[in-house]
Amino acid sequence: MKKKECLLSVFMGLILLVSCTVVTPVTATSNPVGAKKGQSTAVSIGSILWLKGNASIEKAAQNGNISRISTVDMQRTTILFVHILKTKITGE
Fold first, then answer.
1. Residue 1 falls within a domain, yes or no?
2. What percentage of the chain has pLDDT greater than the value 90?
3. In-domain check, residue 10
């Protein structure tokens, strides 16, 4: 019985360490790459229940004070059932 409890504890600990991050380029325009950067973030549980944030390109542009967007990248991080979506943009 003690061995099963130990294995279960190790298994649960490993599950808590599981995560994955993927960065995907979304688009690039003919606008020159500027020095300004903007980012917006949203957090959800199971991609169904959105807890907070707004990961739109428009919000990222507002946060970086960008009027002409050059590049857009999306970063998704998953830790168990929690999903973090970040939109990163560059421009002028």
1. no
2. 46
3. no
The total number of structural domains that make up the chain: 1
Q: Which amino acid is at 49?
A: L
Query: What is the pLDDT averaged over residues 11-21?
Result: 75
Confirm whether 31 is domain-assigned.
yes
* Cβ(28)–Cβ(70) below 8 Å: yes
Length of the chain in residues, anyone? 92
Contacts of 31 (CB under 8 A, 6+ apart): 68, 69, 70, 91, 92
Range of the domain at 52: 19-91
> Is 73 within 8 Å of 23 (Cβ atoms)?
yes
Alpha helices in 22-75 (DSSP H): 57-64
* Cα–Cα distance, 41 to 33 (Å, whole number): 22
